[in-house]
Write a structure and sequence with these properties.
Layout (H helix, E strand, L loop, with lengths): L5 E5 L4 H12 L4 E3 L11 H11 L3 E4 L7 H6 L1 H22 L3 E5 L28 H21 L3 E6 L1 E3 L12 H15 L3 E5 L5 E2 L1 E3 H12 L3 H8 L6 E4 L5 E2 H12 L4 E5 L8 E2 L4 H6 L7 H12 L8
Parallel strand pairs: 1-2, 1-3, 3-4, 4-5, 5-10, 6-9, 7-12, 8-13
Antiparallel strand pairs: 8-11
Helix pairs in contact: 1-7, 2-4, 4-5, 6-9, 9-11
């Protein structure tokens, strides 16, 4: 990408999209295209087609999606599969129609089978049943990977699908009803510390293992991928295999260990009570990141440092004194 290239960041106000937008600005890219949801409804095909015809982006980061944790996925499965299918279908088709050079479709590690061998290689996609609690979302994202692959084969497009591990960072969703596990823990621990509580209940058994990637690290990985030289970039688009690459740290920890680390960073000294009647989700989701490591990218931010940075970004929101 040239510094003067027309670059569209879809979902620039979300956790991932905002990090990509900040990273592009820091790197000096001058022609960034963004639209709020009020300005452009990505679920509306006509609006999306008109937008691409007007702006003619050369590169697209597809970070727009309907996302949420276990509770949100269980409560509104139809919304998750419908809206994500609409958004990605409209964006990929409009990108093709307007001649976008490179497009990065961002999915999630939940696309892989629930009982996938660990660490999870890209080729494990569609080799087993999905985790039921987020299957509608996962199926929509799998369809996005297949669309990128199909458009590449039929139309000669150059669309790549990146599957990040669990994301966190400034701009995350901390709503207690539909946030993911790490922002939910940060909020719970911060509020428990503020209230002087000594016990804190957490969903599940605490035994599932999860991998976490700081949002700014993901942003750098995304820009790194779209800036690869043609030969290396083309090698990722495959032919016999999906144009898919994992992005993560290659390290994980249990939910109990995560809760203890959040407590350490935030200074909470109470105990945790785990509720095994609540769903655990997938037992383990550790990505194999050897492919992106071989290209020259590795995550830089430790989980402890990232939790601290994330907490500082919302400290006043939870009214926690310094």
């Amino acid at each position: 990408m040239e510094k003067s290239s027309q670059i569209y960041v879809a979902g620039h106000r979300g956790l991932v999209g905002s990090a990509i937008h900040r990273a592009l600005e820091r790197a000096g890219y001058a022609n960034l295209i963004v639209r709020t949801r009020a300005e452009l409804d990505l679920r509306d095909a006509d609006q999306v087609q008109a937008f691409f015809a007007e702006t003619c982006p050369e590169y697209v980061f597809m970070a727009a999606a309907k996302v949420g944790g276990i509770l949100a996925n269980n409560s509104a499965p139809a919304d998750f599969i419908r809206e994500n299918l609409q958004i990605q279908t409209n964006l990929i088709e409009a990108a093709h129609a307007s001649g976008v050079d490179r497009l990065l479709f961002l999915g999630s590690s939940c696309i892989y089978p629930k009982m996938s061998p660990q660490p999870i290689k890209e080729e494990y996609l569609l080799t087993g049943p999905l985790e039921p609690t987020n299957r509608p979302y996962a199926l929509a994202k799998i369809a996005g990977v297949e669309m990128c692959w199909s458009y590449n084969r039929q139309y000669g497009t150059r669309y790549l699908a990146a599957m990040p591990t669990n994301m966190y960072g400034p701009g995350d969703n901390f709503d207690p009803m539909n946030s993911h596990v790490l922002p939910a823990l940060i909020r719970k621990v911060a509020q428990a510390r503020q209230a002087g509580e000594r016990r804190l209940e957490i969903w599940g058994t605490g035994t599932p293992k999860r991998e976490f990637l700081y949002s700014d690290d993901l942003a750098e990985a995304c820009i790194f991928l779209l800036n690869l030289p043609d030969e290396k970039y083309s090698s990722l688009l495959g032919g016999e295999e999906a144009p898919l690459i994992n992005i993560g740290t290659g390290e994980d920890l249990t939910i109990r260990e995560l809760a203890e680390l959040v407590s350490k960073v935030l200074g909470f000294e109470g105990e945790f009570v785990f509720d095994p009647s609540r769903p655990d989700g997938t037992p383990r989701k550790l990505l194999d990141v050897s492919k992106i490591h071989s290209l020259g990218w590795k995550a830089k931010t430790s989980l402890e440092a990232g939790i601290g940075l994330t907490y500082e970004s919302v400290r006043t929101q939870f009214e926690v004194p310094a």
